[in-house]
Amino acid sequence: MIGWAGWRASLVLAARFLTIASVPGCEAGGPGALGRAAWWFPAIGLALGGGLLLADRLLSTVVPPLLSAGLVVAVWKVSTGGIHLDGLADCLDGLAGVNAERTLAIMRDSRIGVFGALGLVLCLLIACAALSGTPAAARAPILLLAPAVGRLTPLLVGPRVRPATPGRGLGAAFLGALPRAAGPVWLAVLLVLASLLLGPTGVALAAGALVAGAAGVIVFSRRLGGLTGDVLGTGVELSELAWLEGDAGLGTLLPAGAAGVALIDVAGRNPDVDTPADLHFLEGSAS
Rounded to whole angstroms, how far apart are CA atoms 144 and 183? Predict the structure, then answer.
């Protein structure tokens, strides 16, 4: 059994690995320590999401929505040290490889290529656009849950796919010690939270985001003959991006408070409402 000291050491390790936070305390060590610390990954994601929620509320009061979204995404990625973006860039650069051996060699190269650079730019632009298009009432729960959903993906996929380089690399050590129960337990927790905060649509968004991330992991792992840490990082980024994109596309389905809904009787079956001024005009004509 792992005592409280062991759990706390695993928490310190997980926080230092997943963020740039200078967390005090002694971190867990030894072979497989990071895999065992994976129990804390979604919890670290929720803490990160809480910080993003506060940053968004602060920034939205002083800058325009699009700029606010861009700054929140910047805080998001800087807070993690870009660790998962690095994995995404490496995997995209690896697409130039003609076989698994060449692909792994490209991914180990510390230099970034055209595919990786372009992929990072597109990923960040899409994330900013999706967040700026998120309904204001839903931004808080969306930001709170997004990092946790992303960090759940490795816990679900990792135990079911072999490492590309068994016995070598951080990814292989992580997979070797990854608790199989962590994924299902956290899946249930996050689906309940999504349901409570966003209703049935939140559950659908979470499921879709996790499927998207898992699909990306499976595609890249098949090219490599197994999983690597970079591939798992790519899964995190894809799940987060799918979560934001899904919300932007399904925002009209998110539950609205009854106090925020008003029925306006207007002439015609399909009135043209493009701006707040159009809405005010309809309200005036109906009164």
Answer: 19
DSSP 8-state secondary structure symbol assigned to residue 37: G
For the four alpha carbons of 265, 271, 274 and 277, in that order, the dihedral sign comes to negative
pLDDT at 261 (0 to 100): 44
The full set of domain ranges for the chain reads: 40-260
Neighbours of 26 (CB within 10 A): 10
Phi-psi region of 89 (alpha: psi -120 to 50; beta: other; left: phi over 0): alpha
Cβ within 8 Å of residue 121, ≥6 positions away? none
| pLDDT value of residue 32 | 82
Rounded to whole angstroms, the Cα distance separating 33 from 160 reads 19
CA 229 from chain center: how many Å?
A: 16
Structure tokens at 83: 């660790």
SS3 assignment, position 51: helix
pLDDT of residue 257: 44
In this structure, the number of other CB atoms found within 10 A of the CB of residue 135 comes to 14
Q: Which of 230, 209, 203, 278 is nearest to 116 (CA)?
A: 230
For residues 192 and 174, give the distance between their C-alpha atoms in angstroms, rounded to a whole number: 27
Nearest to 107, CA basis, from 85, 118, 123, 92 = 92
| pLDDT, block means (10 residues), the chain with 287 residues | 74 92 82 88 96 94 92 96 94 90 90 94 95 87 96 93 78 82 95 94 94 95 90 95 81 47 55 58 61
